[in-house]
Write a structure and sequence with these properties.
By secondary structure, the chain is of the alpha/beta class. It has helices spanning 24-40, 45-55, 61-66, 85-90; strands at 96-101, 104-107, 116-122, 125-129, 139-147, 150-156, 160-163, 166-168, 171-174, 186-194, 197-203. The N and C termini lie far apart (77 Å).
């Protein structure tokens, strides 16, 4: 009768350390890389959605690294430089991430939109209300991923809304429109809905009052 035994560790060698637990910053970094890969055409919409689903359930850094090991940014062998809190604060901010996994996440009110938003709903719901937001950039790219969940986006009625997303056994709908003012911001919606829904529409009566300086 034989019994299974754990593999022996060679004499003089210590057992490998346990995998490092992933932080929110680690997930944000990988999410940004996947978003860029989707925009560059390196990943198809369904591939991006599959990796995003794994991303927000991964527990360790090696699990995250597997999601980008076939992408240029994942080929880096040297560790990223460690920055002091002051250096991190001085760096340009990345995309705003709004994530709902088995729950809900809302963004609204008078906040600065920035140039990009990542919205992820996995068996949950995300609501983004831009009707009172401050537009600092001429174009805002929203990458929405809905997997068995929903993403709802509201925009002012005097912006340009462009939809470039896909629905795979799901719905990806936006009421596209073109602003009459050439200085109006452009909201570009990308991403995928798999067994879920992404919706975007203007809210009647909600307008950006000053299109020239981005103040609502």
């Amino acid at each position: 009768m034989t019994t299974d035994k754990p593999p022996a560790v060679p004499l003089g060698k210590a057992a490998p350390p346990p995998a490092v637990r992933a932080s929110d910053a680690d997930r944000d970094r990988v999410a940004d890389i996947l978003r860029e890969a989707l925009a560059e055409g390196r990943l198809q919409a369904d591939e991006h959605a599959e990796r995003i689903e794994v991303l927000y359930t991964a527990k360790t850094v090696p699990e995250l690294e597997k999601l980008i090991d076939d992408l240029p940014a994942g080929q880096r062998t040297e560790a990223p430089p460690r920055l002091t809190p002051r250096e991190r604060a001085a760096r340009p901010s990345g995309p705003r991430n709004v994530v709902a996994v088995l729950g809900g996440a809302d963004r609204g009110g008078s906040f600065r939109v920035g140039s990009a938003i990542n919205a992820v709903a996995v068996c949950g719901g995300v609501d983004i209300d831009l009707t009172e937001a401050i537009f600092d950039h001429p174009e805002v790219v929203i990458t929405a991923t809905a997997i068995c969940g929903g993403v709802c986006i509201k925009v002012p009625e005097n912006v340009t809304l462009v939809c470039e997303g896909s629905g795979i056994m799901g719905a990806f709908d936006a009421r596209e429109m073109v602003a009459t003012d050439p200085g109006a911001p452009v909201v570009r919606l990308r991403g995928v809905a798999i067994w879920g829904a992404v919706e975007a529409a203007a809210v009647e009566g909600k307008r950006i009052q000053n299109l020239r300086d981005g103040e609502s």
